[in-house]
Amino acid sequence: MMNERIIPLVAFMIGLGIFFSYVQPTWSGTIAETKVAIVAADHALAAASAYVSQQNTLASAQNAIEPANLERLGNFLPDSVDNVGLILDLTALASRSGLSLSNIDVSANAVANSAASLAPGALPAARTNPVGSIDLSLSAVGTYTALQTFLAGVEKSQRILDIRDIVVRGSDTGVYNYQMKLRLFWLR
């Protein structure tokens, strides 16, 4: 009779021991951590799906734009500074206008700010302006009519150029020396 009560009691105690020593720590430790990781992974998967959906929507919208218009937009607000191309464009415009460019300098402080924002792998801060700018100084020699033609060409240029300052040094011959500061804009 004693054995009939002791065996179930011992089995119950062994069951409680197994529960508190193995099942409960495993359930609240490893399994709980796994459930949290699964929930986090599900959220990341939902965010990735939303990102892919938005990316596909934007890609289809971009594909709907005519290639000629995309090229014009790329020329209007390029994604890099391209100093060489700009200097060639300005030199060609000046020669068509009758001006002779003698010196083109890139402003040192603007280059330092632009180089910091162009670091490989760097993401722009949320409050950073997505449009960067660089100041260019150029010297030119020519007539006033040539300057007017040059400025009209800059105004009609496909790139955004802002003339910040013009200094004219006079002469008795009708050929003037010009010092100009231009600001070039580009997309970061």
* Structural class label: alpha+beta
Number of helices: 5
Strand content: 15-25%
What pattern of helices and strands is seen along the backbone?
Answer: HHHEHEHEE
Main β-sheet, spatial strand arrangement: 1-2-4-3
Q: What secondary-structure arrangement, pairings included, does this model have?
A:
Elements: H1 2-64, H2 67-76, H3 83-97, E1 100-106, H4 108-117, E2 131-142, H5 144-155, E3 161-169, E4 176-187
Antiparallel strand pairs: 1-2, 2-4, 3-4
Helix pairs in contact: 3-5
Task: Describe the protein.
The chain has 188 residues and is of the alpha+beta class. It folds into two domains: 1-64; 75-187, Ribosomal protein S6/Translation elongation factor EF1B (Alpha-Beta Plaits, 2-Layer Sandwich), CATH 3.30.70.60. It contains five helices and four strands; from the N terminus they run αααβαβαββ. It has a four-stranded antiparallel beta sheet. β3 (161-169) and β4 form a beta hairpin. α3 packs across α5. The N and C termini lie far apart (88 Å). Residues 108-116 have low confidence and may be disordered.
